[in-house]
Amino acid sequence: MNISELIQDLRPVQVTGPTDREITGIEFDSRKIQPGNLFVAQCGTTVDGHQFIQSCIDKGAAAVVCERTEGFEAGGATVIQVKSSDRALGLLASRWYGCPSRKLRLVGVTGTNGKTAIATLLYRLTRQMNHKAGLLSTVCNYIEDEAVPATHTTPDALELNRLLARMVDAGCEYAFMEVSSHSIAQERIAGLDFDGALFTNLTRDHLDYHKTFDNYRDTKKRLFDSLKKDAFALTNKDDKNGMVMVQNTKARVFTYSTRSLADFKGLILEEGLDGMLLMINNKEVMVRLVGRFNLQNLLCICGAAVCLGFDRDETLRILSLLRPVNGRFETIHSPKGWTAVVDYAHTPDAVENVINTINEIRKGRLITVVGCGGNRDKGKRPMMAQIAKRGSDQLILTSDNPRDEEPLDILKDMAAGLTEDELRQTLIIEDRASAIQTACTLAQDKDVILIAGKGHEDYQIVKGVKHHFDDHEEVKKYI
């Protein structure tokens, strides 16, 4: 693609050198540069790409996009200076792949909890409506039936647009995408044309990155601020930040709620460990998901489907057929009469939601196994222990994903949230497999074991080394 065509969306500060030459590819990783490529120098959180500009030019880069123009000799390369390299990469990636998001009905899902469930179930619902669709998700990306492994909640801008372009090539009409706060802050979604945005909820998470809750909230809000007039914004009226998200959007605003008047309103009529009978906009529907948080997710899914033009009654019929997403309130029944619930809950609010759900329907005791991830927000660790202890008959603290931290240090942080008396009643078992086995050994008829934190993940990172580990497998081994 010609440089002048490629950079037409950038509004550069200045351009030095010819713009009529052809570019053979775009890279932001200096190690991958080939002759004729365009290199985008991003400031980064740990490494500044500007320090590699000279080596990229020496390798034959035809053009460089950067924020600073000192410290290198351009030679014959074209230098494009911009205010934000991160944003420029998103715009360049979109243009390079033919603006694929404009050829799809792209819906973004953001919030702290529920993104994966909502995006995945919308993808499944749309395909059951006989429409071709793609999914960009924490668990796995899909282009129709083809699974593409996911490495991040939201991929980098190049990979993101490459996947969207493949969806277009496969004939997809719709794409559903989890939009993380990191991807918004780092401009990975710059240049994307969203037809709709969904807000789930907002609770404490990623403060190790955003520093304050206000920064975290305002970053999420940017997705809605950027929507066009003919897009739709669907927000959770039950969350105190729900209406904040849409206060500056140009899009058409719709709401969903379990407690107040809204465009999409629902309540639980009956529930058990394997499903609920719901009333959604005055129509009854039996679903295979459990809990008030899943009622909110289903209202969001139903609302999004209707906003996309799908028939309301057919939407409800298909909702009744949908199964839980891997690692989201998945139940495993033991022949001895107890039930294990594997859930991805890894924030204080998510842990509280899943515990409250179980406590509303259980007939025996609740045994909770929970840990906290390493190299993440330490402030939530004592909070999660407090919440888990308060709602459980037996609490077992264990490792989650320690990453580069000492597992015992994480457990000490969690234990700091408990009183001496509560600590005496709590089991602390560093090895997660042993903790799960202990919970299974303690469980009796009608008891429920909640195994929280990892959900769909099939690995643990201990001292920087990745090991296979799956909560489902550990329960089934015991059974």
Task: Give me some keywords for this one.
single chain; 479 residues; alpha/beta; Udp-n-acetylmuramoylalanyl-d-glutamate--2,6- Diaminopimelate Ligase, Chain: A, domain 1; UDP-N-acetylmuramoyl-L-alanine:D-glutamate ligase; Protein-Tyrosine Phosphatase, Chain A; 3 domains; eleven-stranded mixed beta sheet; six-stranded mixed beta sheet; 33% helix; 23% strand; globular
Report on the architecture of this protein.
With 479 residues, this protein is an alpha/beta fold. It has 3 domains: 3-95, MurE/MurF, N-terminal domain (Udp-n-acetylmuramoylalanyl-d-glutamate--2,6- Diaminopimelate Ligase, Chain: A, domain 1, 3-Layer(aba) Sandwich), CATH 3.40.1390; 98-319, Mur-like, catalytic domain (UDP-N-acetylmuramoyl-L-alanine:D-glutamate ligase), CATH 3.40.1190; 330-478, Protein-Tyrosine Phosphatase, Chain A, CATH 3.90.190.20. 33% of the residues lie in helices and 23% in strands. The chain has an 11-stranded mixed β-sheet with strand order 9-8-7-10-6-11-12-13-14-15-16, sandwiched between helices. It has a 6-stranded mixed β-sheet with strand order 17-18-22-19-20-21, sandwiched between helices. Strands 1-5-4-3-2 form a 5-stranded mixed β-sheet. Strand 3, helix 2 and strand 4 (63-66) form a beta-alpha-beta unit. Helix 12 (348-361) runs parallel beside helix 13 (380-391) and helix 13 (380-391) packs across helix 14. The radius of gyration is 24 Å and the shape is globular. It starts with a helix and ends with a helix.
